[in-house]
Structure formats: structure tokens, C-alpha cells
Amino acid sequence: MLIKLLKNLKKSFFLQTPSTLFFKKNNFFKKSINYNIVNFGKLNRNKVFYVIRRSPGTGLFSNVLFVLNHLLIAKKFNFIPVVDMKNFITVYNEKKIINGTSNAWEYYFEKLSKFNLEEVYKSNKVIFCDNKYYHHFIYDIDKNKKIISLFKNEIKIKPDLIKDFKKFKKKNFKGKVLGVHFRGTSYKRSPGHPFPATKKQMLNVVKKIMNKYNYSKIFLATEEKDYLDFFKTHFSNKLIFLKNVYRSNINDAFKKYPRKNHRYKLGREIILDTLLLSSTECFIYVNSNVSSAAIALNLNKRQKRFIIENGNNSKNEFFAQFLWYLKKNFPIIFGDFKNKIKYKSSTN
Fold it and tell me: How far apart are CA 286 and CA 282, in angstroms?
């Protein structure tokens, strides 16, 4: 009884991985997952399909990076890559069909090949990737040239998202815009991840760069409501942000369902934020999958970039829950954030 209680406590408090909206068990696929070639039928005898699946997955661009790493494998062995986020449910899957598909990958991105899942699962040679993120995988989209190339050339964002991005940019990006990605909520407690900036740090950096380069607007991407309110207080007449986006002061985006197609919209919103951040004249950020994707996209070739480096959180799940708060509030005892800000020019 005690062991079960401790496991539930760990799952609900310590782990940052969100849960799926639902989980569809499928014994057929469960038995078929391995590194051996699986024969599903007589179609495509001269082809080998490589099914990329991640269930339940985590953040959207973490899932994208997972797919990119497996794309490298598919390219190396001349496999045909297919992303299956229909039979292998992710945290973004909705119960109902979105944009004509039940495959969460295809909510946001085009298929990686011309083949659909129905044909793949009638084919002669199919390999399933493992559902693990290996230590030898690449962990940053913008740090590897092969990954950057695949990201730009193989991962095609759906036209409706591109249309909305361009519409928002045309309407709101007047003059020189400073982009700010201000992570909060779960990032403060994520084991082994970079420590996010504090309000004081972010305010000082933004004011300094705004004054130095004379930016007229700030585009803010944040999932924390408190941080949005903070920027409204200090930069109300200069602030741009996506409206009608789900924001909270706790890590509950995947625990609540406050609007129609909520899970789908969470993914859609982070893609729009990323495209817009990549388009700004200047970008202030702490390293994350979103900032890495924005930099890899490199939609503004002249973009100035400033990274706030506070070091990394403890890899211990218990200590990671408190260390950011202790360093923020008791810097003399637990060590102050060094507040190192590095300039990085656009290079890729």
C-alpha cells in the first residue's frame, strides 16, 4: 500500500511528463513492436517502412526532435519513414478527428512520405522504432547541421498554420520587434534542464536591450499567466502576444480540458509562438526545445540573440523540485544565478 502511494506521489508531483487524454490499447501493435522486420501483408515487397512512434511523448518540439533523430536512422539505412501518432497515442491526440486525421503528427505537419498508415500496415516489411530517447541522440535542433537540414527540408508545417503565422506577423510586427521566450511552470522543476530566468533577470535584460537597440515592440511567448501579467505591467504599450492561448501559473495544461480541441490547440499555439520568435529582430531566451527550434528555423537572418545561462537544475527528481526557488530566494546560501548573458549572432 505504501509503495503504491509513493509511486502515485512521484507520478503526480515529481515527473514533468504530461498524461494522455486517453489511451487506446491495441494488442496487435503491442506484439509487433520490436527491431525485427514485421510482415503485415504482401504490399511493397521491395520497400522497408520505418514507423516512428512516441507514446505518450512530451512537449511538441521534443517530439519533433525525437522524429528528427529517427529520420537520421531512416536516411542512413534507406528506410521509408512514417510517423504513427494515431495508433501510438501522444499527449496532443484528441478524441475526435482534427483536420481530417486521427494522427496527431498530421494535425501540424505533412506526412514524411507519400504512404499512409493503412498501406504501411498491409506491407511486407515494417520496422518499429523503440519508444526511448537514447543518450546518443541529438538533444538540440539548432546544434547539428544534419538535424537542421532535416528540420528545414523534411518537416513541413501545415499550410493553415503558416497562413495564421503570416497573418499575425503582418498585422502586429510593425517596426523592430524584440522576441522573448519566458519559460515558467514546469521548467522551474524539471530535473537536469536549464534553470529559467527570474522576473528580475528578464526585466533587466529586456530593458537593457530595448534601450540599446531601440526596439519598438516586444513579442512575448510564455505559458505562465503571471509572467504575461508582469510584462503587461512593465511594457503594456509595447507588448505583443498571442491571445486566447491557455496560460496558467501551475503545470496543468495537460490536466485540464477548458476549451474545445484543447490538446490540439496547445500544439498549434507553440508552433505559432516558435515561428514568430524566429522572425523577430532580436531574441532573448533560455535554452529549450522551443528556442532551439526557433533558432534552427532562422526566419530572420539578421536576428540578434541573447541567451540567459543560469546553469542546470539538479538531476535528482526530489531536489529539482525546490532548487530554483531556493536559489532565487536565498542566493547567499544556495548560490545566486550567475546571470550570464551571451550574445549569439545568426549563423545557420
Answer: 14
Among residues 86, 120, 151, the one where a domain terminates is: 151
In whole angstroms, give the CA distance from residue 339 to residue 348: 26
- CA pair distance 202, 197, nearest whole angstrom: 6
pLDDT tens-digit profile of 43-89?
999 999 999 999 999 999 999 999 999 999 999 999 999 999 999 99
* 156 inside domain: no
List the alpha helices (DSSP H) in the chain: 2-9, 27-32, 60-77, 105-108, 117-120, 145-153, 159-172, 199-213, 225-235, 262-279, 289-297, 317-320, 323-329, 331-334
CB atoms within 10 A of CB 243: 6
Give me the amino acid identity at 88. F
10 domain residue, yes or no: no
pLDDT at 344: 77
Q: CB of 68 within 8 A of CB of 138?
A: yes
Q: pLDDT (tens digit, 9 = 90+) per residue, 209-226?
A: 999 999 999 999 999 999
Residue 127 lies in a domain: yes
